[in-house]
Structures are given as structure tokens and as C-alpha cells.
Specification:
This protein has 414 residues and is mainly α. A hairpin with a 2-residue loop joins β1 and β2. α2 packs parallel to α11, α9 packs antiparallel against α10 and α14 packs antiparallel against α16. The radius of gyration is 23 Å and the shape is globular.
Amino acid sequence: MSSIKNPYFDDESLTNLLISLINKKNMRVVPKKLSNTFKAFFDSEKSGGILLIVCTGISILVANSVIGDQYLGVLQRDLAGLTVEHWVNDGLMAVFFLLIGLELERELYNGELSSFRTALLPVIAAIGGVALPGMIHFALNAGTVTQAGVGIPMATDIAFSLGVLALLGNRIPASLKVFLVAFAVMDDLFAIIIIAIFYTAKFSIFYLAGAMAVWVLLIVLNHYFKVMSLVPYLIGGALMWFLMLKSGVHATIAGVLLAFAMPFSTKQDDEESPSHRLEHLLHKPVAFVILPIFALANTAIVIGADWSQNLLTANSEGIMAGLLIGKPLGILVVGFAAVTFGLCKLPEDLNWKHIAGAGMLGGIGFTMSIFITNLAFVGDAQVINASKIAVLLASLTAGIVGFIWLRLVTKSEE
């Protein structure tokens, strides 16, 4: 007697159903596959984070050596109208944010952030991770000369935080890597907005309008004329950077805007896509050249005899409490509330212990925190040095605590 074949169940669908039931029975969820470009980005950040630590150590040692004055003098030397330090912070870091914008765009379209409710979690968590540290610092410094430092504990260093996460290897769920990248990028963008609003000494609506006009032109070239060459976008990006710099708004935002104006393919790891090609080109230069140069230029901290006493000031306490307490608490509490009220959802392979660990790593402020320090206390070398020491100590503590926490949590779940 011939068998009757069910039109709704073929062999492949039946196999998939059985696998699904087995996974549910064992209370496990197969992690979603990350794009190859994200893996390359993550791997480069791991090695880059180690190099950053080395460069930071070198910079501090040289700044406190017999050639320290010459070293600091080189950083302040004028080069085509800007100091060397300024070129590093506003020029090279724009390339860094271009890479971050390209990777975020890819994950929003093709990766684990392609689901709106899943993508919303790191955005909302970032809001908590920006707001609570800022409120802690403000509460301790309101009405004082150091109130301007409110933005220092708001940002997360992507390279260092991913470097620590990468040291934990394959035990870390794929979704946690994407979550950390997403909320770190988001709170850095929030920090840039805060810089644009509160740390802009001179503002020109004329130059800002010019930068926005270039951005719109690049979007038109992409969506309406289907221009696939990198050249016009890179030229337009350079012009947008110049106009943004002249506007008084932090110039690195031009890198993020350029990333979202470039042609992007919805095919995962499409090597013909201009955004994919540029992303591939930028991975190693950013990790092994740009960020190490930033560390060398911005961690030249002169450690005086009273450095430990300066940690007891309201400004230093606000920075350290903001990064070590405000960051993880803000990310965890606001994220939990958003999921509880149904605004977004937690990825299937994550739990709140993972999010707590990511929040701890969010306390690694370094790059943007040091940059905001330079803007907040222009001309006050003593406060700048004390603030940078507070940032470094808090970042080191956050990295160690976050690493230990995630190692214990993931070990108990293996």
C-alpha cells in the first residue's frame, strides 16, 4: 500500500520541528549567526584593546619622564591651524566613528538588531547608561566650577569593553557582543549630542547647514542615482567633516552621518557593497593605528604628589561613581523596565545576569570620557589631570569587575 504524503510536512520541515522541540526541552536556544564583518570587527577590537593598554602605559611613563615636557609640547604644536592633539581628536576619531556607524548599520539591517523590538533594548539601555551617571556627577558638583564635567562619565569605550569581552572567548553569547556594541555606540552618540549642545564654544548655523546639505547630497547620490563608487562619498565626507568642524559641533559626528549615507547591501557580507568594502579597509587601521595614537595623545597624564588627594574631590568622586555605579545600574534598571512594560524584548540567548555584566563593562569610559574632559575643563591642567586619573582608575576597575562577573556567570551556565 502506498504511503500518503502530508503536503504540509516534508522531511526537512519535520527535522526542523524535531530540533526545535529538542532545544525547547533542554531550555536552550541556538544563537543567531553573526555576520563575518562583525566577527572581523570584534576580533580586531580584541587585539586593539590590548594595544591600547600598552600605549596608555607608554604615554603615562613618557609624560612623567625627563622628556615629558617635550612630549607634551609636541602634542600642542600647531599643524595647519590645529594642534596635533586636536587633529587626533577631531580628525582621526571621525574615522573611528565612521567604522562604528558602518558596523551598526549592518547589524541594524542584517544582524541581530534587525528586529525593531530587539534593537530597541540597547537604545533604551543606553539612555539609562547616560542619564544616571550624569545625574550622579551633577548631584555632587551642581553649582561648582566642576559642574561642566557632568558629561565625562556618560560614555563607554567600545575598544576596551569589547577587548575585555573578547577575552572570555566563546562562552559569551553572540547576542551579548552585539548588545554591547550597540549600546556603546548609542551612548557615545548621545555623548556627542551632549558635546554639541553643552560643549560648543562657538556655533555657526551657516556651516552646520552646509554640512547637512552635503549629507543630503550624498543620500541623493546613493538612493536616486545609485552611485556605487567610494570616491564621491569619501570626498563628500571630508567636506562634511570640515564644515562640521567650522560649525563648532563636534566634527566626529560627520563620520557617523557618512556611514548612514553610503550605499548598503541587504545581502549579508556582500563584498560588492561600498559600505562593506570600506568597513573591511578600516578594521585594522582603526584598531592598530587610530586608537593607539589617540591613547598616546590623550593619556599623557602628569601624576603629581597630590594625585591621590585629587581623587577625593567632588568631581573625581562624581566621575568614578558615575562610571562604576551609575553605568551598570542605569543600563540594567532602565533595560529591565523597558522589557517588563513590553517596549522591547530580551534576546533569547541572554538573561539579566549577562546584561548586568555588560553594564559593568559599560563603566569603561576611557576614549570619550577623556575627550570630554579636555572640553569640559579647557585651560585647567590640574583638573584635567585629576579627571583623567579618575577615568582611568574607574575604567580599570570596571573592566576587572565586569570580566570576573561574566566569567562566573557564564561558567555556571555551561
